[in-house]
Amino acid sequence: MSIILFLTFLLSSLEVTAQQVPVMETGGQQMPNEWIDKDTGHKVFKLTRREGRNSSFYFHNNPFIGNEMVFCGGDKPFQGDDMTAFSGPADRLQMYAVDLKTLDIRQLTHEPFNVKTEIVCPATHEIFYQHHDTVFALNTDKLTRRIITVMPEALRGGIVTVNADGTMLAGKLDDPEERKILREHPKKSDFFNLIFNARLKKTLFTIDTRNGVVDTIYSERAWLNHLQFSPTDPTLLMFCHEGPWHEVDRIWTIDVVKRGKPQLIHKRTMHREIAGHEWWGADGKHIYFDLQKPRGETFFVGKTNVYTGEEQDYELQRHEWSVHFVSSWDETILAGDGGSKTSVAHSPEGQWIYKFEYDGSKFKTTRLVNMKNHDYKLEPNIHFSPDQRWVIFRANFEGTENVYAVEL
Fold first, then answer.
1. pLDDT tier at 84 (50, 70, 90 boundaries)?
2. Phi first, then psi: what are they for 183, rounded to 5°?
3. Verdict on whether the full-model pTM lies above 0.85
């Protein structure tokens, strides 16, 4: 075959392949497994190709072990107004993993009880989960499960995060009065201010994954939340003071071995300034956060060096604001999941998955997926894939919850 004939054949093959991926509006209908978003030109595809409900992790929890992404799956699709709620034990929730190269899915847990966890340790290839007072670890290679500890009644809190080398879990112990408030006022709009104003005692604790020892590390009469271990320093834990963001200095770190006084990451400087939805950069040197000075007026992504205290702020336009932002693994770009028209930015044109590139003290923005058919009661919670080729997000624009990826 001549070179000209070969090139003609190759171009024809590529053209046919391209034609097989339809260009169409994202959502509002049953979607194929792959399509081109007609408004952005970016290819989108479904990662969780299984029946039932499929839920990816919250934006700051790392779901990746090697080339697999861990997610939670239920037996039946979810339908209803509260897109964040599971419909109960009949869902039969278990943990799964999808191979990001082949898209093959395998089930990880086979427990007689529901399992929904977002605690993954890439270093040890383990996931951690809790059922009542018992804490488990599952090796995702061998699918062997071990009991780490049975928590004493006085310290029966909930685990939230694992440290960088998999030797320690951290969690929080709630005052019984807080659980009572949640039972009597299950909607966030009802319980949020009630818990904040109650100023109940909250205790942070750790569990040694090698010997099961449970130890308290810090207590305060404040609503402590959003625990995240550093991705590189096994002893450094970030947590927040939860509550109305304009009334709290939110972001703190504490050394779980040395204990001592927690360190504030960002101090508010004006009336109604807010900082929140914080996350660690992959190198463990910086904590990033949504920053507004004041709330709903001027928008930034803040970035603080946890060792020097130096802060850099990068400005966004109102329509670029996102419920959550996340940094890439090399921390050269960011992504955002947009927001509904009733979110804090109140933008009528903010329903997109975004890519952000640094441009001095601002960002150059690229729209990746049109999310106008997505109900933001379910937060998309973006992640960069380990190879940084995709932004992964969850959505309900087909009517049920699934996990998708868009090519960068």
1. very low
2. -65, -40
3. yes
